[in-house]
Amino acid sequence: MNKYLDKALEEIRLKNPNEPEFLQAVKEVYCTVEQIIDKNPQFEKLAMLERIAEPERIITFRVPWVDDNGQVVVNRGYRVQFNSVIGPYKGGLRFHPSVNQSIIKFLGFEQIFKNALTGLPIGGAKGGSDFDPKGKSDNEIMRFCQSFMTELYRHIGQDVDVPAGDIGVGAREIGYLFGQYKKIKNAYEGGVLTGKAICYGGSLARKEATGYGLIFYMREMLKAHGQTLNGKTVTISGSGNVAIYACEKAMSYGAKVVALSDSSGCIYDKNGIDLDYIKEIKEVNRGRVKDYLQKHPEAVYTERTGEDSPIWNIKTDIALPCATQNELTLNSAKKLAENGVLAVGEGANMPCTQEATDYLLEKGVLVAPAKAANAGGVATSAIEMSQNSMRFYYTFEEVEAKLDRIMTNIFNACKENADKYNCPGNYVAGANLAAFQKITDGMTAQGVV
Ligand code: NDP
Q1: Which of 127, 207, 225, 398 can pair with 394 through a Cys bridge, CB separation 3.0 to 4.6 Å?
Q2: Three-state SS annotation for the chain
Q3: pLDDT band with cut points at 50, 70 and 90 for residue 152
Q4: Is 126 a catalytic site residue?
Q5: Is the Cβ atom of 210 under 6 angstroms away from ligand 1?
Q6: Is 55-189 CATH 3.40.50.150?
Q7: Distance, CA 133 to ligand 1 centroid (Å)?
């Protein structure tokens, strides 16, 4: 291994003990860009690797709120403003009990490279809270969001840092956050948050963008290998925003989606998933995938018991992990490969463990890496920002066409770099190489800041 890379990784490891997800994300990127590091010996003197791995700013704060019983609850809020070389900080907010600094830092680090790949002027950030929205009333969600924004507002702005949604944060939460921001600032700064509802400045097709974008990327990747989505069997983990719209777009290309999941288990419907019913369960009733059996008793539900999701035991041509980090383990990768999987597309952030990715690539499975394949969400957020600035809105078709073009360009950049650096077909490396080059060029140009 390159000596400087080795030394920098060790220093980053020592500086960030107890942050396994963050270290995993850093190692994953740095170990695939060694050829660029070899070619740029000046990086050592510039401490380039150490600087990229150190957030420009980390904010943590108290979020006190009152539940429906009058009990005061205290959660912890985070915003990691990681890198602003390409544009204002940009990245979602995650509300989930598992949230901690390591998870927010890994997500923020990934976001730097993802945002660079979009070709749009956005830096990298991420935030969130260990708040659990499950089972909370609308009023509790509103009070929590208001308290969260009462601190966050001083750190964000449409030219400074623009948060959006992620796990547990959808249009409802963005609405409450925006309302509180507007009240505190006494100004209508529409571009301060993205993922807004259409009626007050949101972009058409933003809700669909991450899932649709994943399928556009998959379409291009399959095309490069003489394949199409038509007639392929697809399994998708999760049943949230990304999973639902990946399912919708995959079906529109003639694929048959047979399974979806949530953290409790997965449903398998050999006739193809009834997506309208899933939307009703998830988007309207905020229910569980198990509820699918009420209308489709012929489907099979498998409870999740251990670390590995049962969804990856189902034979499929294309697997789309769209739930959370490290959800697809080496065991699951082996099962998928044994069953002849052709391609894996990462809709979630870092859903495959490093061992799983390495194994899949070794077996010749096509892997669409998260930071490229799920970049459609943030790209469309940037399109939402530009519409807010113009005070003019595009049609659904116009936004979707822009998204399609962006995802196609991202795939082409991954392919070009994979070919240029002698790892054809390895789009994981291709994505990292393309983004790393852009970030290091920008940081070199802007000096030591
Ligand atoms: P949602 O909250 O809409 O849905 C999340 C889904 O994943 C739910 O089905 C949830 O099940 C499941 N899930 C969450 N945590 C776990 C867990 N620990 N174990 C098993 N299942 C879990 O989130 P999104 O669809 O927005 O996000 C999904 C992934 O996509 C995340 O990794 C996110 O970072 C990534 N992403 C999202 C973007 C977006 O635009 N929304 C953009 C780019 C990436 P349950 O209800 O049981 O918790």
Answers
A1: 398
A2: CCHHHHHHHHHHHHHCCCCHHHHHHHHHHHCCCHHHHHHCCHHHHCCHHHHHCCCCEEEEEEEEEECCCCCEEEEEEEEEEEECCCCCEEEEEEECCCCCHHHHHHHHHHHHHHHHHHCCCCEEEEEEECCCCCCCCHHHHHHHHHHHHHHHHHHCECCCEEEECECCECHHHHHHHHHHHHHHHCCCCHHHCCCCCHHHCCCCCHHHHHHHHHHHHHHHHHHHCCCCCCCCEEEEECCCHHHHHHHHHHHHCCCEEEEEEECCEEEECCCCCCHHHHHHHHHHCCCCHHHHHHHCCCCEEEECCCCCCHHHHCCCCEEEECCCCCCECHHHHHHHHHCCCCEEECCCCCCECHHHHHHHHHCCCEEECHHHHCCHHHHHHHHHHHHHHHCCCCCHHHHHHHHHHHHHHHHHHHHHHHHHCCCCCCHHHHHHHHHHHHHHHHHHHHCCC
A3: very high
A4: yes
A5: yes
A6: no
A7: 13
